[in-house]
Design goal:
The protein is an alpha/beta fold and about 575 residues long. Helices cover about 55% and strands about 10% of the residues. The chain is built from 26 helices and eight strands. The longest helix has about 35 residues. It is elongated, with a radius of gyration of 34 Å. The N and C termini lie far apart (about 105 Å).
Length: about 575
Amino acid sequence: MRNLEKINDLVLKGTFKTATYEQKVLSEYNNNPFIEALPSIFNEDDVLERFMVTPRISETDKKSESNIRYHILKRARNFIQPLPIHFEVERRLSTLIRRGYLARNPLDKTFLERIRVLHELREEQELAHKHIEDRLNYIRSTADSLSIIGISGIGKTTAIERLLPMYPQVIKHETYAGQPFNRTQIVWLKIDCPYDGSLSTLCKSFFKAIDDLLGTRYLEKYGYLNRVTSTMLLHMTSLAAMFGIGVLVIDEIQHLLHSKNDQEEMLNFFVTLSNTVGIPTVLIGTSKAQQLFKGNFRQARRASSDGAVIWDRMAEESEEWEFFLETLWKLQCLKTPTTLTNELKVAFYRECQGITAVAINLFILAQERVLFDEGNPEEILTPRVLKKTAEEDMQTLQPMLNAIRNNNLADMMKYEDIMINLDEVMLNHKRDTEISGRIKEAFKERQNTIDLKRKDIIESLSIEVAALGIFEHLSSQDIKTLSTKVVETYPIDVDVSKLKSEVIQKAIKLNEDKNSHKETAKLKNIETLPLLKLRNQSLNKKVHPYDHLKDRGYIKTPIEEFY
């Protein structure tokens, strides 16, 4: 019952799907249920769609009060700009998952043979996990490993967390080619390396991640009842093989440096998992993680058998930085939009040094500063404002940013998270300008498409709501204004029926308000007419209006008037 409820939750979240199979373009990917159940290989437009996150800040938002805009400008935290490196990581991940399944075809007898050997090892002595490689060396592996190394705040984790959900996390197989095929496939699993670098804690994190997905109780069974780390490693390896994990992502791998005892064993375990058991691994870490592979050629080779993605900060003169800053700058929520001059570009880069997270924070904090600055009533962003914001609101980052800014290797050694190459070897900062150019054009094209689509929705809503014919006090322009406000509040992919419902509700309220205003105005007009006022007074006093008006001199007898 618990498992069924968990599966229902996964279906609702879109992480679980029942397997449907399709023939792939590449022949080596066919006749393998684990690969045929995956989506088709993604193209650049798919990746662009996934990474293009530009928060909506409307003209109405920009005219709001300062205290409201203070909240609105925080939307920029969600900003993600597609960059050439995102396409590179997606390509690596795409091949990593599919090629990892080539030697783990569940229809092949070696798939069950691998699981059988791992089960036997679990029944043996405590150090059996060290013999996995010897026992499985006759079964080939097509799994590779990928390392993603970059400075803190550059967007490594954000990128991988947006790429992984492009694949269903859990696939339930029932039949294949007309034959019963009951198997649960976990396409990807991401866990964080424990802060203390503990191998046993990593195993428990793995069991918990499986339990959270499938509603199982492996953490209780293998993590708490079995406290021996070597035994937990065997169970972890066996589960990874049994559920056909497509890729295991380990984030914050630099935490291994905190554990001198488990460091070597954990790295060897990752190598074994990929090289022998056939599970592809992605190791993500800051620059200091490179120290882990310095002394061991085997580990270094296996940790980057599919190459290492070195994720450096954006260079000041690069096209990607120019595009990133121009797009970010459009998310201003100030009284007076500040034009992005060359002077501002230089000042902005100086204070953030091309680091994505720092750049976005600087942009938000600088706006916060001018929002309530009485000395800057027009809310203008200037190089001086950027500098003051960096010095006062981002004070803790200044030692690190100064080290980067001055290229001071001695100081940079103190902050290894910001260094890319600890051996002082200069990196090649070449970027794929062709891809970058295509991204820029595609981004502009998509923005135009979104704007046109939004206008179409507004027009359609306005016509549909007006056609209801129940808003006698509203003009067509009133309804269009309401529709525009509602549409601009939501993302472009929101259900139109939801938008229509909200427009109708707002139209009903506005119609009632206008009606009450007219009634009030009518009453005021009545009160301003003396004769009508006197009539009302006479009725209240139960006196005939004729007599009341005559007493007040409004009516005279004909004889007195004319004779």
